[in-house]
Amino acid sequence: MMQSNVFNGDFIENVVTPTREMGAYEALWCEPRASFKTLADKFRAAQNALPSQLVPPERIERYRELVSQIVEQYQVDQFGIRVNGIQEYPAKLRDARNPVEVFYYQGWWDLVFSPSVAVVGSRKVSEDGIRRTRKLVKHLVEDDYTIVSGMAEGVDTVAHTTALELNGRTIAILGTPLSHVYPKQNHELQKAIREHHLLISQVPFKHYEDQDYRVNRKFFPERNITMSALTMATVIVEASDTSGTLYQARAALAQGRKLFILESCFHNSAISWPEKFAQKGAIRVQSYEDIKQHLDGLQAH
């Protein structure tokens, strides 16, 4: 039987709560100059009202129908909806500066509540970076941590695939709606995570469809901020001075999460960010034992 918070592409069940809030949230995203910041400001001003309290009923119904059409067009399988203030919305996401009010998921929802660590880094990862990522993920899986990453090319893909190969758990936080795959070559990887682990997207279906791909790039750094809030800690394997990974680094420190930077990053003369973040509280780690010591301390509390 379909649960009341799941949308199956053919019809919407339970018009009162999650799917109604979805329609309202999608409508809010289609207002002029909508962004995570403007929406967060709107909800703060409304004292954390539900989305449906901010949108006229006719617009809610219209956008629920529009989402239904998109879901049907892309043949999206059943997906769940999480709404701040309703059911199992993770309280830790409220640590983000501009927390999302509604997001979508496919797969094993309970993974959200498992001990998890984000493993992130460059899209154009080096061979050494690949080896370091695989070794790091192996240790984390052996210590029963869920591997969280962003499904991007490079470090993210290596982190997810290594977790799967080792029969570990993994969560992918997407920079696209559930209806899309990016990069395209990760189609089978995204399918495997959807079917056996967990996909999460905070990207609105309709707004994404209406925008040029260049404008939609904004969703990638924003998902890094959510990824940090969702996890106990973030480990950066390697990244350039202009990498989107640094959005997650800044978010982790702002949210009070542990931020680990591998020692190898400090020996790369082409970048300056590792020292800057170390001065702000990031932890320089020479081995997995350094990471494990801090994670064990978090688990103890």
List keywords for this structure.
single chain; 301 residues; alpha/beta; Rossmann fold; 2 domains; ten-stranded mixed beta sheet; globular; disordered N terminus
Please render the helix and strand layout as text:
Elements: E1 6-7, H1 18-29, H2 36-45, H3 57-73, E2 79-83, E3 102-107, E4 116-120, H4 127-142, E5 146-149, H5 155-165, E6 170-174, H6 187-196, E7 198-201, H7 205-210, H8 213-216, H9 219-230, E8 233-236, H10 245-255, E9 258-262, H11 263-266, H12 273-279, E10 283-285, H13 288-300
Parallel strand pairs: 4-5, 4-8, 5-6, 6-7, 8-9, 9-10
Antiparallel strand pairs: 1-2, 2-3, 3-7
Give a brief outline of the structure:
The chain is 44% helix and 14% strand. The protein has 301 residues and is an alpha/beta fold.
Strand content: 5-15%
Predict the CATH topology of the largest domain.
Answer: Rossmann fold
Structural class by SSE content: alpha/beta
The backbone outline, from C-alpha atoms, is globular
The poorly predicted ranges are 1-16
Main sheet properties: 10 strands, mixed
Count every helix, treating DSSP H or I runs of 4 or more residues as helices: 13
Walk me through this protein's architecture.
With 301 residues, the chain is of the alpha/beta class. It has 2 domains: 6-107, no CATH class; 109-300, Rossmann fold (3-Layer(aba) Sandwich), CATH 3.40.50.450. It is 44% helix and 14% strand. It contains 13 helices and 10 strands. The chain has helices at 18-29, 36-45, 57-73, 127-142, 155-165, 187-196, 205-210, 213-216, 219-230, 245-255, 263-266, 273-279, 288-300, and strands at 6-7, 79-83, 102-107, 116-120, 146-149, 170-174, 198-201, 233-236, 258-262, 283-285. The chain has a 10-stranded mixed β-sheet, sandwiched between helices. α5 links the parallel β5 (146-149) and β6. α1 (18-29) packs across α3, α4 crosses α5 and α9 (219-230) runs parallel beside α10. It is globular. The termini are far apart. The model is unreliable at 1-16 (pLDDT under 50).
